[in-house]
# Entry
Amino acid sequence: MIFKVIFITLFGIKILIKSFIDFLNYDYLRKNRDIPEEFKGIVDEKKIIRIGDYNAEKVRFNLFKEIYETLIVMLFLFTPLFKIYFNWIDSLGIAYVMKGVLFFEIFVIADTILMLPMEYYTSFGIEQKYGFNNYTFGGWILDQIKSILVALVIYAKVIVTILKSTANNFQFSWSFVLLSTLFVSVFAFIVMYLAPVVLMPIFYKLKPVENENLKEKIIELVEKAGFKVKGVYVANESKKSKHANAMFSGFGNSRSVILFDTLLNGDYSDDEILAVLGHEIGHGVHNHIVKFLLMTIVEIFLFFLIVSWLLSTQSIYTSFGIEKNFYAGLFVVMVFVFYVIAYFIQPLNAAISKRYEYQADAYSKKLLRNPDNLISTFKKFVLNELSVIEPHPLYEWVYYTHPSLIRRIRRLKESD
# Structure
């Protein structure tokens, strides 16, 4: 019972803190209409109001969505529904491992379906209202189906491996902690590096860049940074939205470049596209993905340490009124860690990520010998994508994985 009280208390504290920070930022975006010196002559009062309204609306809705999903999880875990669901799965005449997989997969499907109205409003409400949505309803549905199928495959692989490695009568074991950490880390590594090759084609049509002049410039830039180019591709993001992006993917010395067609077909010059790519190359040069993976391995290790410690006691099972069952207990701990504990370590991950973004910006400046094109691209992000120029400092510190655009511009200018 003590674990349940701690769980609910931390859940509540998380929502209160998040609500407070989100409302701070919402109010800040609505009231802060000052145009920074760097954007005077580029952004007018009408545009700054639209930027504030768009991002304030997203903050408000994302808070509502977070509370909505939290209620779904809490109603499932902290009412008789959880015990009913467990008893039903446990009564099925199938193998133990299959019961565990079904236990997770059915919840994932149900949660996804219940969250569909939120996802629909994001695309066809907010994004449509501000002119960013290019989805057809059929295309949106297809992407939702693809997303859940990919998630189910990944969950199944991880859950099957973990359940096969331990008996239902679980006892604390360092071998379980270390082997589970090793498997999930290797799996995360594979997914991280194969995502552009395997997952991107599921959601996007990729084709070689047709602009030979730009392609030659890209290859020259990548080779200047010490990498070989496997291919330069364009992804059809314009079928989904008007948002622009670029990726520098792969492992080792050979990399692929993926550009959204919204970047190529927008009002970005070749030099600005190269500046964005220079930033992405900077992540590769500084091995940021590898460093994030190492940090993730530490987090995975701590997760399985918590799992082993909690599930070797009777507290979780008695708290939730179920017999000692590993996959049910694992589910509870996963929810506890990912919905609660992860929130409180988010500022640390965000701080490290922001540091890496500054490093990538600096590398782009070094590679292209000046920061002007990257700065002009950031300014166009504000104009074209209604990107926040400057959020509330606390909100940025807790949630932003990238520094705000105004901070990035000032950092680039300071280092001249």
